[in-house]
Amino acid sequence: MHWIMLVLAGIFEVSWACAMKYSEGFTVAIPTVITAVGYIASAVCLSLALKQMPLGTAYAMWTGFGIIGTSVLGMLLFQEKMTVPQIVCILMIVIGIAGLKLLTGE
Predict the structure, then answer these.
(1) Does residue 16 contact residue 42 with C-beta atoms inside 8 Å?
(2) Domain membership of residue 22 as a residue range
(3) Global pTM?
(4) How many domains does the chain fold into?
């Protein structure tokens, strides 16, 4: 169950970050509300995952999910460009997340 909560926390994190971009500095109502709700939902899901996971592992994975998700959606939704070094660094984050899962047994 803690893995489900951690993945949901990551999804909500990406959601609120993208909604924040659409909120144009919190001047557009609906994206602003989505940002606030997503932020709270992400924190709640992370806190539930932390009941059974070590803080360092859970937080590293949560932020990693956020970095990966927002990077991909930034390219798809906002036509943000990615350089080869940026892609390599994001792939290293993916490897780090996989390593935490596989090597720590979490």
Answers:
(1) yes
(2) 2-104
(3) 0.87
(4) 1
